[in-house]
Amino acid sequence: MTKVYCIGEGLYTPLGSTVDTVLEAVREGKSARLFDRSGYSGASFFEHIALEASRNALKGIEITPGTGFVLSTTKGNVEHIGKEDISLAASAARIAGALGIKTKPIVVSNACISGIAALLQGVRMIRSGEYDKVIVTGAEVHSDFIHSGFDCLKALSPEPCRPFDKDREGLNLGEAAAAIVLSSCHSEPSSCHSEPSSCHSERSEESFEISDGVIRNDANHISGPSRTGEGSYKCLRYVMENVRKEDIAFISVHGTATPYNDEMESVALYRAGLSDVPINALKGNFGHTLGAAGILEAIVSMAALEKGIVLPTKGFHEMGVTYPVNVSALERPASGKLIIKLLSGFGGVNGAMVFRKGGAQ
């Protein structure tokens, strides 16, 4: 099976617009959930941040006739409802056009697992042989529409969120954009030989491989997660078939800080025999960025593993879930060569993805 590598990563967040800047902000315990739009005068802030993240990911990478584009978002331009064409397809077409991409863009909107679902779509596009690279971009901006929906569910916390903590009250909403460029080569495909297995570059030992990924739906409830963590457990069980437990540096969990989500994840990790594996959650730094979360948190996690660290979980102080899990409260050294990214969402959807450092086996 064709291997798929992450050859470019780009961010555009309230904490910064480079991977290094954002990583250092997280290490310092900083939090910023919303952009300062005071100097922005364009038509669509959503499309603006998606473009910026995509361009950051594409630095040094050529757009070719075989470049694909996948947009991950849950709400897109919903803040402009009633004013213009706010369809996600229209947004994706405008973003792809601005990047110079000629192939038809694809939209993935599958609740809060959209990021993983979009990356899986990108992997399949590469493996189909019809694309030499695929840009997968996740973006979300805040709006009264989104806030009112979560507020009606009593899911919002009046204070900074506290994933897995006994005093957690709910989630914080955030906005951000993140992009990953996928390829069957370790580096820029135009510099590779005809066979992907022959690809080589200075980045060959550094590129992360997406070695596995899966989506499972437990159909528990329109907005509530399964109390037994069924879908999340099935995702973990699937990816663990090709993973040695000792190779896991850490698991980047969904960690929304809602009472039911964190409890569900603790059950799923326990059932999968992963209670002692280090985990962390990044919602305390960025808020819940919905369709951008999976891509954003994967990029930051890969950057952390490159530094040999497990990032802290901002807001966590005392265990507040039934099955104790190995929450990283403070930064600590990481061992292992891979990361598992875990996500869950409304409608009973769950996803897991494995990122291997340097394609290590």
Brief rundown of the structure:
The protein has nine helices and 13 strands. The protein is α/β, with parallel strands linked by helices and 361 residues long.
Description of the structure:
This protein has 361 residues and is α/β, with parallel strands linked by helices. It has two domains: 194 residues, Peroxisomal Thiolase, Chain A, domain 1, CATH 3.40.47.10; 150 residues, Peroxisomal Thiolase, Chain A, domain 1. The protein contains nine helices and 13 strands. The chain has an eleven-stranded mixed sheet, with helices on both faces. Helix 1 packs across helix 9, helix 2 packs across helix 3 and helix 4 crosses helix 9. The longest helix is centred in the middle third of the chain and has 14 residues. It starts with a strand and ends with a strand. 55% of the residues are buried. About 4% of the residues have low confidence.
- Structural category is alpha/beta
Strand order of the largest sheet: 3-2-4-5-1-6-13-12-7-8-10
**Average pLDDT metric:** 93
Number of strands: 13
Q: Note the overall shape.
A: globular
The major β-sheet equals: 11 strands, mixed
C-alpha termini separation = 14 Å
Write the CATH architecture name of the largest domain. Answer: 3-Layer(aba) Sandwich
Within CATH, the superfamily of the largest domain carries the name: Thiolase/Chalcone synthase
Rounded radius of gyration (Å): 19 Å
Integer tally of domains: 2
What is the H/E string?
EHHEHEHEHEEHEHEHHEEEEE
**CATH fold call of the largest domain:** Peroxisomal Thiolase, Chain A, domain 1
Query: Helical percent range?
Result: 25-40%
Helix run count: 9
